[in-house]
Amino acid sequence: MRQAGRYLPEYREIRKNVTSFLDLCFTPELAIEVTLQPIRRFAMDAAILFSDILVIPFALGQKVDFIEGTGPVLEPVRTVDDLRALSATAVHERLAPVYETVRGVAAELPGDVGLIGFAGAPWTVATYMVEGGTSRNFANVKRWAYAAPEEFGELVDVLVEATAEYLVGQVRAGARVIQLFDTWAGALHEDALIRWCLEPTIELARRVKAADPDVRVIAFPRGAATLYARYARAPEIDGLGIDHTVERAWAKAELQPHCAVQGNLDPIALLAGGDHMRRQAEAILDSFSDGPFVFNLGHGILPETPPDHVARLIDIVRGRDS
Ligand code: CP3
Questions:
Q1: Which pTM does this prediction carry?
Q2: CB 299 within 8 A of CB 243
Q3: Rounded to whole angstroms, how far apart are CA atoms 202 and 235?
């Protein structure tokens, strides 16, 4: 999940010199540097592009701010008029600095280190666009999706188009793997999850692969519970990020035969460190190491996480390699 970010002092040093977080995402020289920081410090096997899922609403013309202590704040899109005020004409131009970052990182990474590009899946991006930020119960966006699916479908279509363009731009610039973050998939019931999370994710994977069939796509439908199995069986999806609530034995039996599994250490286990972290990491390695597997957290790293715990965790995982 998030490797760069506020838990690293070298990130905070760069962050304090830029006024807005989006400026950091759109300044290739700085974004290249923060993408590489965790690789330099920990020699991970892959780097994840430094950007954010909310660059898409920004590129569509929505007002997006990141406010310290509050998180993202957007001017909500709640009506057909709001929706029609969005414009895809500037998407490519506004996102071009991110492609430059991908190119710059690809040029600097050692040949055996992967480069993961990413975007938010349409549902999760739509939750921020409609709610105007992080939400407790997603009442506005869910009501729109449930009561007026054709209108809401228009928003999702706009997001699929813009996101596909963005991802193909990343792939052309050198990303070899694409991850689609659907952080709020678990807010939806079964039928809605299939319609608004699974189907748009598959469509995006198809479009990425149409541009380059060798690119691998990882989906992360957080909270999807047993519906993870539907993702695993989709031929367009090569890997599945699983959150810490997914039972390991179930994932080994139901997901790993169909696709690579990525996960699923609870980020708070990394924050806590010590024996608890070691035992959890070992249990995950015991469960998944004999199939296609990427060791990872089940969700993003917390800013309070001591970098020493990350170093210790990497030693535990690497210790298994040899
Ligand atoms: O390793 C990386 O840092 C990769 C880049 C990355 C960021 N965000 C940078 C970031 C990635 C992959 C994301 C994904 C992202 N962004 C998701 C999906 C994954 C997840 O964590 O659920 C979501 C939902 C977002 C939206 C978002 N961006 C939120 C809710 C916030 C605020 C978080 C908070 O606690 O305040 C952000 C800001 C953000 N994105 C930061 C970083 C490093 C922190 C910004 C800062 O430095 O002030």
A1: 0.97
A2: yes
A3: 9
